[in-house]
Specification:
The chain has about 220 residues and is an alpha+beta fold. Helices cover about 40% and strands about 15% of the residues. Bound molecules: iron/sulfur cluster (2 copies).
Length: about 220
């Protein structure tokens, strides 16, 4: 190709490229946009979208079903048995028999499968539509849902103290009752032991048959 021919060919290719680009711009300039001005505008998510987990801890009964269902063991729960007088009730009427000083979910391990939410009897563990998981420090992905641990442990200590006091009082009452019963039984046994001689004495006194009455000597 001669130099002149190449010169005009380059001019033609450049103009064709510009025109193709302009045609593409012209075609899309008046179309409805497919992008959003995130984060000011966001997509509406599907109803069953699985985002970051949330636990409505007031309704959690500490049954551990969610932790058992989790395939990657990223749910960590500590439970402590409550005293009977400390039982609570969830919003759906389920009895709460445990203190839950720890309910943590490590979202950095979670694969957002939703298996943990299925067996939850009170439906307090749910998947939100929150999807912004980006954090500067991965420890920020460690979610803690338990109410104030110190407060719970203080309540637990108080409940244990109360239960121990009641147990001591119950044992004392039982001991007193047992001692009274033993004394009553001993008294009853003492009376029974004294009574057999009474009929003979009574018979002698009354001259009833069977009593040994002395007869006057015939000689
Ligand atoms: S969503 Fe899946 S991986 Fe995440 S905590 Fe629940 S069961 Fe575990
Ligand atoms: S399954 Fe539900 S109620 Fe049971 S421990 Fe997990 S979150 Fe709490």
């Amino acid at each position: 190709m001669s130099a002149v021919k190449k010169y005009f060919s380059d001019i033609y290719n450049s103009m064709a490229t510009v025109l193709v680009g302009m045609a593409t711009t012209g075609r899309t300039a008046f179309r409805k946009p497919v992008t959003l001005e995130y984060p000011d505008v966001r997509w509406e998510l599907p109803e069953r979208y699985r985002g970051i987990l949330h636990n409505r801890i007031e309704d959690c009964i500490g049954c551990l079903a969610c932790a058992r269902a989790c395939p990657v063991n990223c749910i960590h729960i500590d439970i402590v048995k409550r005293g009977k007088e400390e039982y609570g009730v969830t919003s759906d009427g389920t009895k709460i028999t445990q203190w839950i000083p720890r309910f943590d979910i490590d979202m950095s391990l979670c694969m957002v499968c939703g298996l943990c939410t299925e067996p939850c009897p009170t439906e307090c563990l749910t998947m939100t539509k929150e999807y912004e998981l980006a954090v500067h420090d991965k420890h920020d992905m460690y979610l803690e849902f338990a109410l104030d641990r110190d407060k719970v442990m203080a309540e637990k200590a108080e409940a244990e103290k109360k239960a121990a006091k009641e147990k001591a009082a119950r044992e004392k009452a039982e001991k007193e009752a047992a001692a009274k019963k033993a004394a009553a039984e001993a008294e009853a046994a003492g009376k029974e032991g004294a009574e057999p001689e009474k009929p003979a004495a009574d018979a002698e006194a009354d001259g009833k048959p069977g009593s040994e009455e002395k007869k006057p000597d015939a000689s």
